[in-house]
Amino acid sequence: SLNLALRKEFNLYANVRPCRSLEGYKTLYDDVDVVTIRENTEGEYSGIEHEIVDGVVQSIKLITEEASKRVAEYAFQYAKNNNRKKVTVVHKANIMRMSDGLFLRCVRDMAQKFPEIQFEEKYLDTVCLNMVQNPNKYDVLVMPNLYGDILSDMCAGLVGGLGLTPSGNMGLNGALFESVHGTAPDIAGKDLANPTALLLSAVMMLRHMKLNTHADKIERAAFETIK
Predict the structure, then answer these.
(1) Which residue windows are coiled coil (predicted)?
(2) Does the chain have fewer CB atoms within 10 Å around its N or its C terminus?
(3) Residue 142: beta bridge partners?
């Protein structure tokens, strides 16, 4: 996809998706406030797959120490900069001992450099279970690519869907912000489009650019309108 190409071209290694309950938008949950941080460049989405023989296809999950350390540092620094109290690493190292094991070790090592941030380790399936029972158990979650793709959409569902959740793709030399719901041409002209995710993604972009006053005005206007 074009999105994937942009992430690779500009080395946008961390996907950041804040999911927060919005006053005035009623869902089954009214106290969600979690941030998913997803490694954006490798894992099952490395694009390495091939047919070995007829009827047998192999897909390679790539995990590197460099990428794992980089996204781990971003997660802890994000927590520190945004007054978050806890980082949870989401993994399946009990099954994928080498690949997820490497990712887990890198996050563990990084946790030691941020003693002021609480740190915990959770299996992916446990997080999914807990998220639908009590989402306020979690604060900032960091994980490999595929897990983050699935879990971030699940979190969006808790607060009302992809039409309400912003997204940022962060790199060392650039950043890309987007509403992740796509262009939805099937509802064009029907007065059904929800601009909230786009507006809140713009708010993320402005804060990244240190234009906090402008960001606050747009965010406040959006929240007041929804309320």
Answers:
(1) none
(2) N
(3) 37, 89
